[in-house]
Design goal:
single chain, 153 residues, mainly alpha, 0% strand
Length: 153
């Protein structure tokens, strides 16, 4: 039946599209993982910078160094800026985690859709193969039948 072979061709086309979507989803997922790693590194750097500044301030304070008000204000502003940077980096990491989780969800959905298309293709190919084999058997059977002369008008 030509409709079955047409359906099989359509399913194979769908399978190619689903495979392309899965590959795209894999690429997006990989990029989101890399972005998450980069954001995490930047956050860790900001935290280390803040820790180093606090340690230096603690050392100066324990040594008995007295800061004039202008220097004290500059240190407070630097600490505030450092904390704002850390907060921004934490927000970026949170967004990167959400993006990575969404990319993973999309990747899993694409893999499931591809698997469904593969199974449908395999089933349709089996149906077409069985139909072809049955047609061939009928043709063989018909060829073995004796031909009687036609009695025409």
């Amino acid at each position: 039946m030509p409709a079955d072979t047409h359906d099989l061709r359509q399913l194979r086309g769908i399978l190619r599209l689903r495979t392309m979507r899965r590959e795209q989803a894999e690429g997006i997922h990989q990029r989101s993982r890399e972005a998450l790693g980069q954001m995490s590194r930047l956050l860790e750097q900001a935290l280390q910078l803040q820790r180093a500044a606090l340690v230096h301030l603690g050392q100066c304070h324990s040594a008995g160094t007295v800061l004039d008000p202008a220097q004290h204000e500059q240190r407070l502003l630097a600490q505030q800026a450092g904390q704002l940077l850390i907060d921004e980096r934490r927000d970026a990491v949170t967004k990167a985690i959400a993006t990575q989780e969404q990319a993973l969800t999309d990747l899993l959905a694409a893999k499931v859709a591809e698997d469904v298309a593969v199974k449908a293709c395999e089933r349709m190919a089996g149906v077409v193969r069985q139909e072809t084999e049955q047609r061939e058997r009928l043709d063989i059977f018909d060829s073995w039948q004796p031909r009687e002369p036609f009695h025409g008008l």
